[in-house]
Amino acid sequence: VVMRTWIEPVVAGSQVASAFYDTALLLVVKNYYNQTNTTAPSHALEDAQQKAVSDFYIIYNLVLGLSPLVSAYGLSKLGDRMHRKIPICFPLLGYLGSKTLLLLLILLGWPIEVMYGAAAFNGLMGGFTTLWAGIMALGSLGSSESRRSLRLIIIELVYGLAGFLGSMASGYLFVGFSDRYREGTVLVGCSIACYAFCLLYSIFVLTVPKPAASCPAKAKSAEEVGSQLPAHKETAAAGSSQPSESNRSTPVSPSKLIMIMLFVAAILYDLAVVGAMNVLPLFLLREPLSWNAVEIGHGNAAGYVIFITSFLGVFVFSKYLRDITMIMIGVASFSAGILIMAFVRWTFLFYIARAVMLFALIPLPTIRSMLSKHVEGSSYGKYF
């Protein structure tokens, strides 16, 4: 019964599917614009292709990023009020539909602009924003406050391992079957199969875990309140070192200032990471690197190794450091790595930059963990 509460199969399956899809989409778009620019001179072909691919991804990422704004909050709120599976199943259905459109595009020769509609459908069904919030809410529900940071980073670890394996295999799958099938058909088909598994698992197997004993919705004993306040003094509403009698029997009310600061920190950091990662694939396609499908798969896999190193970082740092310190380490790691990435001209330097980013994924799960300690379990989905 406990195994049915595990969200990890959904995390792993969806991330393998996403790794397959990301590689397939990039190479399908590249090949599409390569065919449409066959009449251009060879010296101008690469620049024209790079501009076309960049323009496509700018629009695609804008649609993919903005369309969830319409539905994400509503789906998360429905998940809090009605059923925790709602913000998981709806996005998975959106993923399944949008990836099917890419397969039809490859098989039927549709124009690449169809993928703008696929991105909009994916986003309107909640997209990654809603899916990840639902996953984090389920992970938080079944864990105690003292172990929540570790629990959430374990989910990130599974996400990273799955992405690593999927990325390593994606380049070979794309190239290996291109002589018998249209390029990308097998890769996108595998992605669709993984999303179908995740959707069926979420509907028929996954059960919502019972809240941990330390859930804020229940009254807390004096010992529980006393043990939590010193570890997070910056989030206490009162300035005294000892909780009052009223705080001993009721949940600690969240500080609005702390909540706002955590939200702002998460949004700014996420903007920096997402912005950099969206530009990176375009940089890999042209000189000085000019990577092929297999090399792009390896490069994506190197990015997912960061999930493993970030997990190890949280596992060790959480024993000795406060959450704020861990967040600062993660921000410094990403900033240094992306600075090196700006000057990459050789493949080995790309991997050095990735290695410097080894703790770059610590901040967001740690911020979510801090947020979860200040809100009731019934509101996790809405806040995440």
Automatic annotation (TrEMBL):
Protein name: Thymic stromal cotransporter
Localization terms from the record: Membrane
Chief subcellular location: membrane
InterPro entries tied to this protein: MFS, MFS_trans_sf
Any coiled-coil regions, as ranges: none
Species of the source: Fulmarus glacialis (Northern fulmar)
The organism's taxonomic lineage, starting at the top: Eukaryota, Metazoa, Chordata, Craniata, Vertebrata
Sorted UniProt keywords: Membrane, Transmembrane, Transmembrane helix
Entry GO MF terms: transmembrane transporter activity
